[in-house]
Write a structure and sequence with these properties.
The chain is of the alpha/beta class. 33% of the residues lie in helices and 26% in strands.
Length: 214
């Protein structure tokens, strides 16, 4: 029996969109305690790797295991609540307030709505809780997404440009969430163009060029 199995493992993973090859034969293992920085030019395949790890992206070849589940099978749905994924576009219902968004998310996890109010306060949004998401700045929406992370306490963080549009206080909050997750035996993957900031957080980094991991 493996005492500390990997949080995620990609073996020979390729992804295509029509005739376009996005990822090519990716091998990657992410262990407990890893904070992996992923760098590369626009269109290199960084976001696609995150989506594969989030069990959201179909693959053309290879195998994907995340938190012990086959990410290509129905069992992927059982591990998604343990994954914290923040992409480019905030995953908020625009017509709902921030409090309603977080309350809905808390209920979907079987939690009391009071944790939503606490999380919004923790990210500095207590005063904006009753504001509709589509009337919030991009930076506020990003903070609300990290409030969602605080509510769910995932063991696997997948963050796409996590420091984008955030002020200094919010940047420090992101870093603290990453450190907490890793220190508790989880793992994080951070895709970013901010190499200096991510290197200060990462335990290791990789480069992706033309869909190939270096």
């Amino acid at each position: 029996m493996i005492e500390n199995p990997p949080v995620a493992r990609l073996d020979g993973v390729s992804v295509r969109a029509g005739n376009v090859q996005i990822l090519r034969d990716i091998d990657l293992t992410i262990d407990p305690g890893d904070a992996l920085g992923v760098f590369g030019a626009n269109g290199a395949g960084k976001t696609t790797i995150l989506r594969v790890l989030a069990t959201l992206q179909p693959t053309a070849t290879g195998s994907v295991e995340v938190l012990g589940a086959d990410a290509t099978a129905d069992e992927r749905f059982t591990v998604r609540p343990r994954i914290g994924y923040i992409g480019h576009v905030p995953a908020l219902y625009p017509e709902l307030t921030l409090a309603e968004n977080l309350g809905f998310f808390a209920r979907s996890r079987g939690l009391d709505e009071s944790v939503a109010a606490s999380a919004l306060a923790d990210v500095g949004l207590a005063g904006a809780a009753d504001r509709r998401a589509d009337r919030c700045s991009h930076g506020m929406q990003r903070r609300a997404e990290f409030a969602r992370i605080l509510v769910s306490s995932p063991v696997f963080l997948l963050l796409d440009e996590p420091h984008s549009a955030l002020d200094a206080d919010a940047v420090d909050l992101v870093d603290a969430i990453v450190h907490r997750t890793v220190d508790q035996g989880g793992a994080a993957v951070l895709v970013s163009h901010d190499r200096a900031r991510v290197r200060s957080l990462a335990t290791r980094t990789v480069e992706i060029e033309g869909g190939i991991l270096r």
